[in-house]
Design goal:
Distance between the termini: 32 Å
CATH class: Mainly Beta
Shape: globular
Order of helices and strands: EEEEEEE
Number of helices: 0
CATH topology: Immunoglobulin-like
Helix content: under 10%
Length: 70
């Protein structure tokens, strides 16, 4: 899997949660970013989804999305 996601925090306390694949979706990894920090994540055989809570810029191969959940 070569899909990457870049998350840039626009505020302190942005949470990133990795969710597993399979019949039972579970949390398997969490990160907390402060304003200006950047996190690069990759979708893998284990990670099927990423949940982002907080104001952030999210960059994917499909473009840029801004989460304004403040």
């Amino acid at each position: 899997m070569d899909d990457y996601v870049v998350v840039k925090a626009l505020e302190n306390g942005v949470n990133i949660i990795g969710l597993t694949r399979g019949p039972d979706t579970k949390f398997h990894h969490t990160e907390k970013l402060d304003k200006g920090e950047v996190y690069i994540a990759q979708f893998t055989e284990i990670t099927s989804a990423i949940k982002i809570n907080g104001a952030a810029e999210i960059y994917t191969k499909h473009g840029k999305v801004i989460s304004d959940a403040r």
